[in-house]
Design brief:
The structure is a homodimer of 200-residue chains. Chain A has 5 helices and 8 strands. The termini of chain A are far apart. Strand 8 of chain A pairs parallel with strand 7 of chain B.
Amino acid sequence: MTANATETRKTKRSPVLINGVDTPALFATIDAVRAQPDLAKFQFRAKSHWVSGTQSHCTMHGFYGAGNELTHVTAFTAVGDHPAVLCGSDHGPTPVEWVLHALASCLMAGVGNVASARGIKLNKVEATLVGDIDLLGVLGLSNEVRNGYQGVSVSFVIDGDASPEELEKIVMQSKARSAVYDIVTNGVPVSIGVKTPAMA
Amino acid sequence: MTANATETRKTKRSPVLINGVDTPALFATIDAVRAQPDLAKFQFRAKSHWVSGTQSHCTMHGFYGAGNELTHVTAFTAVGDHPAVLCGSDHGPTPVEWVLHALASCLMAGVGNVASARGIKLNKVEATLVGDIDLLGVLGLSNEVRNGYQGVSVSFVIDGDASPEELEKIVMQSKARSAVYDIVTNGVPVSIGVKTPAMA
């Protein structure tokens, strides 16, 4: 292999895959959606069934997006439960911990994409999430105390080949375009319908 | 075993465990918190680390509650990722699907507890959750389109030893005291802090 060939491959490869992100594909996706905005309409779905007590299982497989019915590579499943101290069987994280995971995974995905789009190699990104909740609401012992978290804090540690200011800006840009951050901070309308066998 | 002994065991057992819920323990917990409201202060936590691209791993283990530092029976882990159509490696559900799971598992836990507290045996409970999202927001292609879901719908099918009206009321009471329903519909303040090695 000549020095020239190595050089060519290097210049070809370096913008392609950074932090595991295929940045040309990412930019091409954004361009495709800009040209045809309907491709941006997605619908995500989950099917849950009650198992026993506070335990339930959920499957996430099919979704709609980019004009097509799609599926994940496999049907992902997850468990929700309460710990023993909250009269559950502790077969899985609590629903409110799943909210923290949802938020963390959204901010992390954004950090990966934003850093890559800016050509910044990441070495390590960690986040610790903490949510404070007063269960007087959930337990029906107070109408003044809300059911959900009083507040959530997220503490990032980020290391990469950029200045502290640039690294901080990556996290802040991720936050600015995070779907779950928007959902958790601003709220979303949720409708609930119920069918019983007698209605079927 | 005499008929009398069987009868005694039946009357003893039937209020104890229904739908896998130890209802006397549930009521005792509520009474204990009523007497000492500080026991209701909980803090849930998650630790997340970025893996590659849009993929991250999260651990949910320790939490604070009922006046003590506690842990789950094991350190639960979960993955978040984007599917290929969104330039990810599809190693796990998307962050916004995790929101659906969080909501489903909270409503399901409530249904289990409320039905049991009302002495209603559940035969089957399923829920299908759907969230619509326009990615023009997340992709930075529109400032008018929000980043998160436009809306979420939850469709329950519930079967149990009660009238359709009573079964529907179980779901509605679960919703009325659901932590995640409150978080997702009303929003929660989220603070984000960033540290870089240079600051450590």
